[in-house]
Amino acid sequence: MHSIYGFSEEPFNVSKVARYWLASDPLEAMMKILENSVWLKDVAILASIVVGASIFYKVSSSIIRLTVMKAKGEEGDVKMLLGLWRIVIISISALVALNFMFNLGLMMAIVSAFGGMIIGWSLQRPITGFTAWIIITLRRPFKVGDRIQLPAQGLTGDVVDIGPMYTTLNQVGGAIGSEESVGRHILIPNAMLFDNLIINYTPKNRLEMCRLSGEKSESYILDEVVTRVTFDSKLEVVSDILLRAAREVTQDIIESTGQEPYIRCEMWDYGVIVRLRYMTRAVDRPRIVHEITKRIVKAFSEEDSVDFAIPYVYSYKTARSRPQKPYIHIATR
Length: 333
What we know:
Alpha-Beta Plaits, 3 domains
């Protein structure tokens, strides 16, 4: 036979505690509960779960901190890992305690079913990103060290790392008005790579050619320097100056690619637009543009037959409003 409080032969039940507490004298009920060995055993087990979880967390967190610091990590890395580890320990301890106090078999089955649906829905993007990482690793549309561009996001950067979830870029431009690396790392979710156009500055066939020939693998792209000259400038002299400047700066690139610089001209309202086109390194474009421009300006200043075109706007009304200088006619015999 069970006692009136129901604790002598049955495991702890919260609903029975509340029912007997209300049906009896509170002081008497408290005394019976304290005298019951099963209740004390349950409390001891719950306390041991809490204490054991705390001790395990302390020991494991010390190990994690030591491991991260030995791997030359930072304090911020340790805090992030310990925050995640703390949530894991608390969740597991809570499940163990609830399973001990209640019969969670049916409840856990229901929660697992709905939890599986929710987790499957929430992990769609991570699974897509992981699949993209596998495809990138196998197909290698780009690799670490390549310069890629995502036009939809307006991003250009050098690939620093390709991980299971994210691709890390060292941003090019953005903070400055030039195609130079600024040292700002951008994390691109791999799932985005399925939905966006990606431009790789390093063609795959070029890499294969470098591998077969034993040359250093570098990214070359076509670039141009635009110069505007007056109508009375000698285009032959202008072309010679521009081509000479390009050859001086990009001689090694010409030898590597076999492509010579060339000129293209077109008419403009205030003169002639002369476009110097040449092969350049994708990661060294700003410096090469600077060197070529410096040589062009210096050569133009030393040559009398060429000049830069400057836009000039003439207004008839403005000219009429200006005071006219007196016209002096000098008679000659």
